[in-house]
Amino acid sequence: MLIVPPAGLLKAIHRAFIEIEGEPGYLSEGMIEGCIQRAITYVYGFEPFPTIIMKAAALMYCIIVFHPFVDGNKRTAILATSFFLLFNGYEFTIPNDSVEFTIAIAEFKKSERQIAAWIHKNSRRSVTALILNLILTILYYIKLIP
Questions:
Q1: pLDDT exceeding 70 applies to what percent of the chain?
Q2: Cα 13 from Cα 59, distance rounded (Å)
Q3: Is 36 within the bounds of a domain?
Q4: What's the pLDDT score for residue 145?
Q5: Domain CATH for 67
């Protein structure tokens, strides 16, 4: 089952970064949910991002390029992507080139396919993450999480 991080989690991630350094606030608070929904889009049998890695790439791209926050979009995108992958059975190791890579995304120098390749290179399926996915799925089905 696909587990999608709620907008509240992305806001909490952002708030944690901004408490350390940065300017708080939103340029478009509604765009946070828009970024999540874009990553999981499925319309009339067409799924533009059919794999977990592609969905993670779409989420990262959207947060960085659509810029819902005043500051901290790239930092938030990296950690939101990491949580998205963890919730869905992958461990993502944030590589040393993540600052340069996210700047390249912001400068429109990286496509979603290139982002997906970078995420794939730095991710692996994980038993721990798969167990987390199973627990979250059970909690969802017994209505303990929305």
A1: 97
A2: 14
A3: yes
A4: 59
A5: 1.20.120.1870
Tens digits of residue pLDDT in 20-72: 999 999 999 999 999 999 999 989 989 999 999 999 999 999 999 999 999 99
Centroid of chain to Cα 129:
15
Length of the chain: 146
Cβ-proximal residues to 53 (8 Å cutoff; 6+ apart), any chain:
85, 90, 116, 119, 120, 123
d(CA 77, CA 33): 13
Q: How many domains is the chain partitioned into structurally?
A: 1
Name the residue range of residue 16's domain: 7-122
Distance between CA atoms of residues 85 and 11, nearest Å: 17
Residue 133 near residue 87, CB atoms below 8 Å: yes
Give every CB contact of residue 57 below 8 A, 6+ residues apart in sequence. 49, 81, 112, 113, 115, 116, 119
Confirm whether 145 is domain-assigned. no
Task: Identify residue 61 by its one-letter amino acid code.
Answer: Y
pTM above the 0.70 mark? yes
Range from 69-78, 79-88, 132-141 carrying the lowest mean pLDDT: 132-141
What are the structure tokens assigned to 52, written together? Answer: 């977990």
Q: What's the DSSP call for residue 92?
A: E
